[in-house]
Amino acid sequence: MKKFLIVLLAAFVVLMVNPSTSKAKVIYDGVEIVKGQTGKLTFSKDVKVYKKNANGQFESMLVKKGNYFRVYNIEKYNKQTYYWMSSGYRVQASDLTVFKAIPFEQRVQFYQNPAYMWINRDKPFYSFYNESDSLATHAHSYYTYLNKWGNFIFEQGELVNTYNMSFVGGGIEKRTIDPTDIQLIEPQVVNKDTLFIVTKDTVQHIKPYLINNNDYYQRLARPLPAGTVLKSVGFKIGNYYAVTFNSESDLYSTFFVPESYVVEKAN
């Protein structure tokens, strides 16, 4: 009995030290889903899939009909859809592919404070604004950080973007969003008191991505000459810090700057 109690106590201690081992698996459509997964992909018959290795050579794999793969990212451009499967294989949507999207409610539960990134290159994301007492929209292109353009809620099983227009006398505007147009990312936390100094001339990056001068907002971006002091707004996406000017603090004024263009200002 004493030996049994010791074993039981040891098991309890292991669970307390490493609570992640006790987390319940999340199941959808009969299989386990994981953080970063967008959907599951099967094929209607046996097919070969390909991936490009670091050395430039292509590697193939035979996939049997009915076998499923996790899809972590989706690309949409030139009216085509591509699925990035687990193991690095990329497959174009066709009559041989059967994709099943994971409900957004289940995708988002893996994240503490997710960043919503627009990933549809064929279709822009439209944000609301008010101009001359009439409701209008701005179009935002690939990899726009959507969190600053309203909230996302679930209504009757659909993902809905809402924007509060009360600051100009309007109400709550709503638009249904295709959840596969959004990639979820867990931002890295950065202290909000951190100040950065720009080390070489650049401009505001409206998104945490390479500059696209055809983007409406990028064309309006302010220059950031070397020596400019910026303030962290609390997070980082990839190699881009989310910042604002030291005199501003609201989310609407947030923009991004590449990590390689700034250094942390000493106290």
Summarize the structure.
This is Surface layer protein A domain-containing protein. With 267 residues, this protein is mainly β. It has three helices and 24 strands.
Secondary structure elements and their pairing?
Layout (H helix, E strand, L loop, with lengths): L1 H16 L8 E3 L2 E3 L5 E5 L3 E6 L5 E6 L5 E9 L2 E6 L4 E3 L4 E5 L2 H5 L6 E4 L6 E7 L2 E7 L10 E5 L2 E7 L7 E6 L4 E4 L2 E2 L5 E4 L3 E2 L12 H4 L3 E2 L4 E9 L2 E6 L9 E4 L3 E3 L3
Keywords: Signal
Protein name: Surface layer protein A domain-containing protein
Organism: Lysinibacillus mangiferihumi
Task: Please give a handful of descriptors for the protein shown.
signal; mainly beta; 24 strands; 267 residues; SH3 type barrels
